[in-house]
Amino acid sequence: MLNSNPIEAILQDHEIMILDGALATELEIRGCNLDDPLWSARVLLENPELIYQVHLDYFHAGADCAITASYQATVDAFLKRGIDENDALELIKKTVYLARRARDNFWREEGAQKKRPKPLVAASVGPYGAFLADGSEYVGNYGVTDETLEIFHRARMHALIEAGADLIAFETIPSLQEAKVISRLVTEFPHTYAWLTFTVKNEKEISDGSLLAECVNVLEENKQIVAIGMNCLPVSITTEAITNIASYTKKPIIVYPNSGETYDPKTNKWHGLKSADRFDVKSEEWFKAGARIIGGCCRTTPHHITELSKRWRPSVELSDS
Predict the structure, then answer these.
(1) Which of 149, 217, 237, 318 has the greatest number of C-beta atoms within 10 Å?
(2) Is the Cβ–Cβ distance between 293 and 254 less than 8 Å?
(3) Residues near 29 by Cβ (< 8 Å), separated by ≥ 6?
(4) Which CATH superfamily is domain 6-312 in?
C-alpha cells in the first residue's frame, strides 16, 4: 500500500508547490568545472559540501523541494571513472543525504517557524541519454532495447529510494519508449511516488517527436506517478505546452523551464539571451494554464525562486542565504 502522496499534502494547503532552480549551472557560477561526462556528479567527488550549500540556498529562497545531484550520477558512469559498483551506489545515495541534511538543518534552524510546508527531497533520475553525454537527452532516439533501459535505471532508483528520498524526479525524459519503461519500473517499488517531466521540441511534441498528449495518456493510469509535465523548455513555449496537456491529465502539471538560452551539446555551452520575462510574472500565466508545481531548470538561480516565493507566499519572510 502506498504512503501518503507528499506533493498532494503540499497542494492541499498551497496554490502551488515551488521547486528549486538549477543545480549544475549554479555550481558552475560558484567555480566548479563541469566539463565532464559526470557533469554535476563530478562535484560529489571533489566538493560535496558545495552541493549542500546550493540546496540550502534554495531552501532559504523559498523552495518547497530540492532536486538531488543524481541526474548524471549512474553506476555505469562511475564505473567508467574507475569507481567500483559498491562505491558508486554509495555516491548515488550521498546525493540524497546532502539534500536531506540541507533540508533538515534549514527546517530545524528556521523553517518550522514560518508559514510554509516542510520541504521535500526529490531524487533526480536523468534519462539514458544523459549518461551518453552527447546531447541524446535532447533527441531521445537511443536505438536500445527496453531491457537496456530497465537495467540502466533500476540500480540507481533502488539506491535513491533506499537513501530516503521523498519521491523520485524522472526529468528531462526525451523518449516515449523510456517513459513507458520508467512507468513499469516504478511499480517494482510499490511504496514510491514519482514525477516525470519530458523535454520538448515544441509545445506539442517531446524531443523524439511523440505527441505530448500521447505521452501523458501513457502515464495517466499509473497512481505512483503523481505529477506530469515538462522541464528545461524555453519560457516562450511553456504556457502553450501546459495548455496542450491540461485536458489530458488530472494529475498536477509540473513545469520548470530554463532561462531561455539554448544549450549546444557539441560545445557544452549555452548561447543566446536569457528570457526577459520574470518568473513570478510568467508563473501566474502558467498557473492559469494549469500548472501547480513550478520551478526553474538550467541557468536559473536562487533569485528566480525568491521571485516565485514572494509572489506565491507573500506571508513568508525569506531569510538571506
Answers:
(1) 149
(2) yes
(3) 301
(4) Homocysteine-binding-like domain (3.20.20.330)
- Distance (Å, whole) CA 192 – CA 4: 10
Separation of CA 5 from chain center? 17
Q: Give the Å distances, CA to CA, from 208 to 142, 204, 215.
A: 9, 12, 11
Distance CA 21, CA 192 (A): 23
Q: Are strands 291-294 and 253-256 parallel, antiparallel or unpaired?
A: parallel
Strand-pair partners of 17: 293
pLDDT in tens, 168-220: 999 999 999 999 999 999 999 999 999 999 999 999 999 999 999 999 999 99
How far apart, in Å, do the first and last CA atoms of the chain sit? 39
Report how far residue 259's alpha carbon sits from residue 232's, in angstroms, rounded to the nearest whole number.
8
Determine contact, residues 197/254, Cβ cutoff 8 Å. Answer: yes
Domain boundaries defined on the chain: 6-312
Cell of residue 230, nine digits: 515538462
pLDDT in tens, 243-289: 999 999 999 999 999 875 454 455 445 444 454 367 889 999 999 99
Can you read off the three cell numbers belonging to residue 128?
539514458
Write out the E strands in 84-178.
120-125, 167-173
Give the 3-state secondary structure percentages of the chain, helix then strand then coil, rounded to 5: 45, 15, 40
Task: Report which of 245, 161, 153 is spatially closest to residue 198, judged by C-alpha positions.
Answer: 245
- What is the Cβ-side half-sphere exposure of residue 318, based on CA atoms within 13 angstroms? 23
- β-partners of residue 228 are 196, 253
pTM of the full structure = 0.92
Grid cell digits, residue 157: 532508483
Question: How does 247-285 read in b/e, with b if 16+ C-beta sit within 10 Å?
Answer: ebbebbbbbbbbbbbebeeeeeebeeeebeeebbebbee
**Residue type at position 258:** N
